[in-house]
Amino acid sequence: MNPDATPVVDFRAADISNGEVVVVDHLDLTIHPGEFVYLTGKVGSGKTSIIRTLIGENPPLGGEARVGNFDLTNLKRKQIPYLRRSLGVVFQDFQLLMDRTVEDNLRFVLEATDWKDKGEIAERIDRVLGAVGLQHKAYKMPHQLSGGEQQRAAIARALLNEPSLILADEPTGNLDEDTARGIMKLLFEINRHGTAILMVTHNQLLLRMFPARVLTLENGICREVAAEA
Q1: pLDDT band for position 44 (50/70/90)?
Q2: Structure pTM?
Q3: What are the φ and ψ backbone dihedral angles of 131, each rounded to 5 degrees?
Q4: Residue 131 lies in a domain
Q5: What Cα–Cα distance (Å) separates residue 30 from each residue in 7, 35, 111, 193, 196?
Q6: Looking at the domain assignment, is residue 128 inside a domain?
């Protein structure tokens, strides 16, 4: 982590809504390049609302909020695709396209984000599948993969456009303990190469096994806490 670098996330007294009412008051959140940050809290505490704000879905209702070079308080509709290309998002339920292979899932994303050269597309797909250990599963359909392999494919998808920040929303929620540990090791390996990660989780065991900065939401307030020993 380089604390002198421009933050990938910089929220100052930002009021976060669920689309209708404020659910997190005056959020101060700064994430620097290469940081790994956990976001915890009970169901309904505002974790998902923060993720939606970060991807430009829910504009903040007050304060300042930036993701990289994007000002979320004055984000124009035409800027949203470019904001989202600068981010990688990993979901609990994988959200792979079930009617096409792993390779075609990744090709779909690249083509949708204006990659044109077939050779460059093939090279990028091979590289991200290598990064998550799935080179040999490129031609498999999602239903032919285990849950852990599907999540690895989803992480590969998140890496395609070399994001400065990955948003991981309960990425181990549907996985058994051993598989979850494997996914955590992969995320921390990606993080060591400089990609910042904001991970939503309620799994206290993982927080103890893989310590990092921890933020918790309670009663509309976000505060930083020490990881449990």
Answers
A1: confident
A2: 0.91
A3: -65, -30
A4: yes
A5: 6, 10, 32, 19, 11
A6: yes
